[in-house]
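To assess whether ligand presence alters the predicted conformation, the chain was also submitted together with flavin-adenine dinucleotide. Input:
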Amino acid sequence: MKTIVWFRQDLRLADNPALNWAAERGDVVPVYVLDDDTPPPALRMGAASRWWLYHSLAALNASLGGKLVFRRGKAADVIPALAAEVGADAVAFNRAYEEWNIKGDKALKEALGKAGVTVESFNGALLFEPWEIKTKMGGDYKVFTPFWAECERRLPTANIQPTEAPKLNLLGVMGDSLDSLHLLPPKPWADGWLELWTPGEAGAEARLDEFLATGLSNYANGRNVPNAEATTRLSAHLHFGEISPRQVFAALAGQSLIKGGGHNVDTLKRELGWREFCNHLIYTFPKMAIQNWREEFNHYPWQADEEGYDLWQKGQTGYPLVDAGMRELWATGYMHNRVRMVAASFLIKHLRIDWRNGEKWFWDTLVDADLANNACGWQWVAGSGADAAPYFRIFNPVEQGKKFDPDGAYVRKWCPELKDLPDAFIHAPWTAPEHILRQAGVKLGDSYPGPLVDHQQAREAALHGYRKIARQH
Ligand code: FAD
């Protein structure tokens, strides 16, 4: 028997239920389809994701002895055509939960059914299917804490035993080359990223091992400190399925016994719980990436501030923590979670620019761009999401800097023009006396911008807008 395994956001051999099923049946034809036709144009994969994907596919292809078939086009057309071409009697894949993926999968199943080809899909991406976790009344969760409590209640009996990579009888088929998919950016923007990231299954495993050895013991405290690099940095590996959450949970199982491990392990599990929750939300509200979850936000008086948006993208707002984050994003394809919150809040609340513009920029520039996590992150910050920060919570970028980057090490790294400012002024250079600025070589409005907006005034304007929609609602 011959099975096509359609790889998508599950670019690994271990703990891959679709691959296991196919391996049991007999011969396996592994394929990756670059599908820019099924998703709506705005939801096509961004540039940083494509960079990651290129290297992840190269790694997967190497693990498959160069037998990974590359195709492009609408998966619902390409896969049945490939099945006919190679005489496959079955197709297996792991599920993805974006609305367009779900629609595409239905179309694929129908086409294969008509052709008499067996098709099986599996959960390879989540601990629980997004429809599995229900309230006592059988409804969908809208708040994280009870959602996660329910997941935790089920975890001991859930199957989170990851499997080893199966033995495979691989069949070779002619296809496009990886390079012909043109995934790498035409400009040398991502040059040097391979020194920062190792896309692929082996890279994911190595990252997890390194984190367990050096990062876990300080995760709960260190995770909020951008310069501590105390988080797993597994997000892109998880998004592309180079490692599964089951594998991470299994690796964490023994770690609670390590001194202080329990608290850190629980905190990390909770963060992975947010990933489950975001998938639950986007499954139950498929328009999460494009529509406000709270309808009153449809009336928020957003500003069309192109200049502000441009300066935000470039890390030139004059607020060092925001600028450092935006520059880290551009330089590495990643931004620390605390800074994502502050930078997003600045765009939405200080500049009053619609969160969807920020979501779009992150979508294009993050290596871990993930429709569910990105949409939920942005809607959380905006206050328009299901379990969102209250609208009146407006991050003060200066205070956030003082609290989470007290010695300014993160700002100094990404805004080197400020590096000689004393700690007292590093998060608010405009408050420094002239002679201090001169000593530090900072010329406001020249070597570094003055603040784009005044925090208090911007805060008041944002609150005014929110009060208006709250009253109307
Ligand atoms: P760790 O702290 O080590 O967490 C481990 C894993 O848990 C992460 O890899 C991720 O899979 C998951 N996780 C952690 N925090 C969250 C969260 N708040 N929501 C959902 N899952 C979480 N995460 C993405 O993976 N892709 C995105 O596109 C994305 N966009 C975001 C946009 C905004 C505005 C905000 C505020 C957050 C966004 N996040 C996104 C969530 C979070 O910032 C990243 O998952 C995290 O910074 C990745 O670093 P890490 O792997 O070291 O995280």
